[in-house]
Amino acid sequence: MEDKNREPFVLVSVFKDDAKPEQITNAAPALSLIIDEWHNSGKMIWSGSFDDNKTAMSIIEATKPEAEDFYAKYDNVTKPFLNTYMYQWDAMPLLSLLGVKQTQPSTQVASEEPPMQVTPEQQ
Q1: For residue 82, what pLDDT is reported?
Q2: If 81 and its partner were Cys, which of 23, 29, 35, 120 is the partner (CB 3.0–4.6 Å)?
Q3: Where are the beta strands (DSSP E) in 24-111?
């Protein structure tokens, strides 16, 4: 598929209260394979966990069918120990605002004042 049809999708994962360490260990090889296949096909994924040590978020760039396929595989492997949710980027208002801000051309007029500079005394 063409890159212009790709959109960002957000995958949120939360450990279930009854998650067992052996479930996670058993799923690790299959989960690694899913992510490796994604990377090896040239697709992007950014992931990170939150401070609560229960929740993580990943952002993928894909067509809708690719995102749905990725989610189905991921959810199937992790459903014994994770609750997972996938949203199209626009479905998450804060992320949508950040995405729009980064992609919209600036309409600001250049300031006539020079930029602020830090003097050695201020450092």
Answers
A1: 97
A2: 23
A3: 45-49, 55-62, 82-88
At a CB cut-off of 8 Å and minimum separation 6, what does 85 contact?
A: 11, 12
Give the count of domains, the chain: 1
This prediction's pTM: 0.69
Task: Kindly state the tokens that stand for 102.
Answer: 């980064």
Sign, Cα dihedral of 34, 70, 80, 59:
positive
Tell me, yes or no, whether 61 lies in a domain: yes
Element spanning 100, H or E = helix 93-103
Instruction: Give residue 21's domain range.
Output: 3-49+56-92
- The residues, any chain, with a CB within 8 Å of residue 48's CB and separated by 6 or more, are 56, 57, 58
Task: Provide the angle, in degrees to the nearest 10, between the axes of the packed helices 21-40 and 64-78.
Answer: 160
In a domain, 36, yes or no: yes
Residue range 79-99, pLDDT digits in tens: 999 999 999 877 555 544 555
Residue 3 has pLDDT above 80, yes or no: no
